[in-house]
Amino acid sequence: MIRIYGLSRQAGGRKILDDISLEIRRGEIFTLIGPSGSGKTTLLRLIDLLDRPTTGKIFFDGKDTDGPEPVRLAIRRRMGMVFQKSAALNTTVAENVAFGLKFRGTDTAQITQRVRSALELVGLSGFEERRAVTLSGGEMQRVAIARAMVTGPEVLLLDEPTANLDPVSTEIIEDLLIKINSRMHTTILFSTHDMIQGQRLAHRMGVIMNGRLAQVGSLHEIFYQPEGKEVARFVGIDTILRGVVQTNENGHAKVMLDHASLEAITPCLPGKKVALYIRPEEVTISIPDGVRRTSVRNQLTGTITRLVSLGPFIRVTVDCGTPITALITTRSCGELGLTVGMTVVASVKATAIHVRADPA
């Protein structure tokens, strides 16, 4: 539906986006993730035709968007945009939602009907006469979504729509986006630095790092098969080990590290330098000679060097000659009696290790 080729954007002598090529498919929810300042907002503004790229092309349904303003306006009217901090007119909720329809010259009776439908869609029926500036942040963001949806866009763009909201309001917005996509078949493209939110909503994801599109793929590909250290670190993979394939029998390889060896699944041949990526939730922690028994072959004994509380979870760092990070429940941590300096066994299945050729 939207095809982007070689897109770049420079401003103030700085390159904000560099050689972005991407396809957004009709009817999907596509999420842009990346650190703050990586270029997510700039890319959304370019797609929404609010700005023009320095180089590159954007095609909407096969039409080049780099045309005269009447052509660009016609394409823009097929899209709706919701910003992170949506501005509210100091009028009623109904007048806020109706703004785009009035701008297009829609007749009064139709405006009333469509505004009512849009507010029902976002769960704000009966709010028509409320003053928009008196609403909570979550309610105002839903008004902004209603204002975008009232014109019937084919594509809905959202720039970190829940960044300033509480967890309850965030969940309402997320459920609303799923409903809009499934019921109305609206293509949704939104940016977020909340990776968990991206996992909950997206059909596909793109990772933007330093103005470049580092990886595009399914949720499994992004979070479990990252294409490089930078993406891996961003999506929560702390354990990146380097070694050399010693043996490989039908894809089951033995990889030699500096202080140990691990078994992993990879087509890489003996002698190949590789990097091993291990997600923390794939690592199991146990006590040496404890009651627990496991068939997992990759078992490394080490010393706990750090315990970090993450609400219901604990991030455990174990020095096994090289640092290995595990994510376990707080309850499990208490049951095992884990403390810094304690000797434990870190176990990981061969199938849970993502192997990539190491360019270094």
What does this structure look like?
The chain has about 350 residues and is of the alpha+beta class. It folds into 2 domains: about 1-235, Rossmann fold, CATH 3.40.50; about 235-355, RNA polymerase II/Efflux pump adaptor protein, barrel-sandwich hybrid domain (OB fold (Dihydrolipoamide Acetyltransferase, E2P), Beta Barrel), CATH 2.40.50. Helix content is about 25%, strand content about 35%. The chain has helices at about 40-45, 70-75, 95-105, 110-120, 135-150, 165-185, 195-200, 220-225, 230-235, 330-335, and strands at about 1-10, 15-25, 30-35, 55-60, 65, 80, 155-160, 185-190, 205-210, 210-215, 240-250, 250-255, 260-265, 275-280, 285, 300-310, 315-320, 325-330, 345-350, 355. It has a 6-stranded mixed β-sheet with strand order 6-7-8-3-9-10, with helices on both faces. It has a 5-stranded antiparallel β-sheet with strand order 13-12-11-14-20, with no helix packed on it. Strand 4 (about 55-60) and strand 5 form a beta hairpin. Helix 5 (about 135-150) runs parallel beside helix 6 (about 165-185). The two termini are about 40 Å apart. The mean pLDDT is about 90.
